[in-house]
Design a protein that fits this description.
By secondary structure, this protein is mainly β. It is 0% helix and 46% strand. Strands 2, 4, 5, 6, 9, 10 and 11 form a seven-stranded mixed β-sheet that branches. Strands 1-3-8-7 form a four-stranded antiparallel β-sheet, with no helix packed on it.
């Protein structure tokens, strides 16, 4: 059974940076696309960024384009989200996920494509 463990969350002032990491254990996830979602209080979980299983494709929600970068290291069974120029509206619980139900080398923005989820890590950005 695959388990995902996130790290790197925390509190930062606006304009600062954080790097979230997700480590998978129990199965190699290099053959899957992976992604990050976030959920702010009172809001639905939303797609933030995703990377295809080959690593050649990535997508971002419009609000983070140019500020966030997703990457993966198949050898280490990990993937990361580098977040720069953080804004208060980026405050949320961030979840990493494995696109266990996506069978193409593509990126899905649909949470239903992601069958394995981490426990979430809090990111708080103060103004």
């Amino acid at each position: 059974q695959v388990q995902l463990v996130e790290s790197g969350g925390g509190s930062v002032q606006a304009g600062g940076s954080l790097r979230l990491s997700c480590a998978a254990s129990g199965r190699t996830v290099g053959s899957y696309g992976t992604g990050w979602f976030r959920q702010a209080p009172g809001q639905e979980r939303e797609f933030v960024a995703g990377i295809s299983r080959s690593g050649q494709r990535s997508q971002y929600t419009d609000s983070v384009k140019g500020r966030f970068t997703i990457s993966k290291d198949d050898a280490k069974n990990t993937w990361s989200l580098q977040m720069n120029s953080l804004k208060p509206e980026d405050t949320a619980v961030y979840y990493c996920a494995v696109a266990a139900y996506l069978y193409s080398d593509d990126v899905s923005r649909d949470a239903r494509s992601y069958g394995i989820w981490g426990q979430g890590t809090q990111v708080t950005v103060s103004s």
